Amino acid sequence: MKPLPWQQANWPRCTGDLAALGQQIDFDPWLKHGNLPRWLEILRQLPPATVNEFGTARWVGPVGHSVDSNKLRHALEQLKPWRKGPYRLFDVEIDTEWRSDLKWDRIRSAIPRDVKQALDVGCGSGYHLWRLAEAGCEQVLGIDPSLLFAIQFAALQHYALDPRIHYWPIPLEAMPRSDLFDLALSMGVLYHRRSPIDHLTQLKDQLRPGGRLILETLVVEGDRNTVLTPADRYARMRNCWFLPSVEALALWLERCGFVDIQCIDQTWTTSDEQRLTPWIGGQSLESSLDPGDPTRTVEGHPAPLRATLIANRPA
Global pTM? Predict the structure, then answer.
């Protein structure tokens, strides 16, 4: 596959089955954005630095010395909003809207051993790609149609040059069936899909036989027949379609052919995990909840409850 616009000559390229999969995809329709030339220029402004290591504890990012911090901060601030993280590029801390490290802590024990290839669908700026590599995954692919998120990822890969980690700016629907991945993540994506059943089927089509799906999404309390479909918005989100109960979601997974389905976590979203920071601007969780009753959204729906399920494609 040809290099993406932000990939420099010394960047690592996909190899093996992943490269062959990339050859089947037309990336051009997903590379059209009026801000792309400006974003590419921002990447060219990133100051050089010596990278001693790449941190993956809470703050993901390069650690080193002799970097022009003012120049680096100026470049990174032009790539707002930073949604998923947090990141630390040398001594510049990007306090993202989401504490994605808390999500990682909830799924870390569900990562199978000896994962050769992992896929993160709707990966945002790629926070969990670095954590998956840290957990031992040999090759990690993130996909997300947002070009801004791809550029944010590129700012980190500019320094890391990690040959295990790759990013394609495409939606899941643009991926041909591959049967390739040992592990697939879909976190915070399902409720944005007009057809959640299609999304689950497409995820299964990317897994090898016996591969595992880790699925995190908004849910509501109820039985296997309970599904909330907002009439307009949910927590100020316009593109929010279906919020099932955990039992209904497990039934969807079963109908799509998954087995060994388990719910491993349910967590109410709080301002400890999603909040307004100087790196995003605008609004966040607090403005999406009823100020008189934080158990409800401003539209009167139940406040955000997130469930994480694991399920396997049959061997």
Answer: 0.97
